[in-house]
Each structure stands twice: as C-alpha cells, then as structure tokens.
Amino acid sequence: MLIQNIAAEVLASHQAGPEVFLLKLRAPAIAKVAQPGQFVHIRCGETMDPLLRRPLSIHDVGAGGELFLLYQVKGRGTAWLAGRQVGDKVDILGPIGRGFTLPAKKRVALVAGGLGIVPLLFLARRALEAGNVVDFFYGAQDKERLYRLETLEAMAINLFVATDDGSTGFHGPVTELWKEHLREKTYDLSYACGPRAGLAAFARLAARYGIPAEVSLEERMACGFGACRGCVTALLDAQGKIYYENVCTGGPVFDAASVYWGD
Q: What's the CA gap between 7 and 31, in Å, rounded?
C-alpha cells in the first residue's frame, strides 16, 4: 500500500478527557485506504524540532475523507499537536503498518484497555460493515477515562464496560469481564489493544479457549519504516524460539500466539 505524505487540514480539535484530545483532519487520500490497526506518522512542529515524528493509531475515518486521531499529551510533540486550531495544517505520513484481519459474518470480540480504544473503534465500525456480530469489552481505571462512550453506544455493537475502581460497569479488569462471558459463549476471532499486562492476560485467555486472537502492540516508533530498530518486540517462531521484529513494519498488529509475553 502506498504511504502518502500530505498536509492535512485541522477540522476540529477538542479535549476528550484528562490530557486526551480528539483531532479531526481532512485527509481523504489517507482515509480512503486506511485499515483498522494502521497508524500515521505526524510531524509535531513547524521546524525539524522535535526531530522525530509521532506515531498515532488511526482512530476512525469519515465518509467525507475525515481522519480522526485520539491521543494523550505526553511531551512536547503531542502538546504542540493539542494546540492546533481549525484551519492549521499538519504534516502526516500514512497509512503505515499491518492492520487487523477482518472476517465477514462471524462473531468477534474486541477487548480495549484504556486508550486501547483508539484502533478498536475503527475496527468495530469496519467489522459491523462486514456483517459481523461485535461484542465490545471496554475497560479503564475509572469512568472518566472511558473515552468515546457515546460513539460506541450509538453503534450496533454489544457493549460491556469495566472499571478498575468500580465507578461504572463491571468492577475489575476488562479481561476478567471478558473471561466471565467466555464461560457462556465463544468467538470466531478476538482482538485487543491496551497496556501490555492486559494484552498478556487477553492472549492467555484466547489460547485457553481456543480463540484466534490479534493484538495491537504499543512501542515507541522513531522512524516508522524499520530502519532504526527502535521498536523491536520479541516474537516466537514455529519452534518456540525467540526472535525480534519491528513493530512499525511487522505490525503493529500481531497474532497474539506469536508474541513472547515473558512467561
């Protein structure tokens, strides 16, 4: 797939939660071909400082060529991005990376932890368009960190919510909520994104119940094209031996069973 470099116009930007922002860009060339699980690489400044681009997963696309990015402010680059106003231009490269495998007319489970919602909302939309039954399990520390709930509630999915502090929904980790449902039903395919510990728990559950599973890994991607080797992750080959792959080029989506979780 051709990676394009465009100057995307800011259509809207607003704060969606504690240090979390939702950015809407006009980027039809990228939105038209983007797949759930892929990301864009953004230059966060008018000059070469900061030098490195910031990788952001594609959160959603619109019918009019809009590109939506949901991200957390963590440093100078993302702080600069949060300051963009309507009409500003943002230099982006994309779409980049390997996305999720999408079946048709199956029952699928999506398990999101915190900002793991970012690629999974787009995936849920495409899964529905392909005629799948979608069970969406969404967990966060508390109800204030459950982002885009209104958007999810408006979609034709089965939504199940968990919070670590019990402020809304199931009291406990979202993987525990998913495990409760696995006792009664099964899925043709499952997907997850979130903190690594949660992904490891998700992968173990999927393996226990014999459910094919894919995970979107979060690593710091410096170049975005596999040249710097700064985002390698440990994987397992067919013989169970560890090898290393770039998340930016080999992923960011991987078969959960192929990831070495350290256990």
A: 13
Q: Which residues are annotated as a binding site for [2Fe-2S] cluster?
A: 223, 228, 231, 248
How many domains, in total, are found in the chain? Answer: 2
Whether 244 has a pLDDT exceeding 70, the answer reads yes
Annotated binding site: 54-57, 70-72, 77-78, 223, 228, 231, 248
Please enumerate, by residue number, every residue annotated as part of a binding site for FAD.
Answer: 54-57, 70-72, 77-78
pLDDT tens by residue, 122-155: 999 999 999 999 999 999 999 999 999 999 999 9
Domain CATH code at residue 49: 2.40.30.10
Same domain? For 134 and 91 the reply is no
* Domain residue limits at 206: 107-258
Q: State how beta strands 4-17 and 89-96 pair.
A: antiparallel
Give the pLDDT confidence score for residue 2 in this predicted structure.
80
CA angle 65, 109, 143 (to 5 degrees): 80
Same domain, 138 and 238: yes
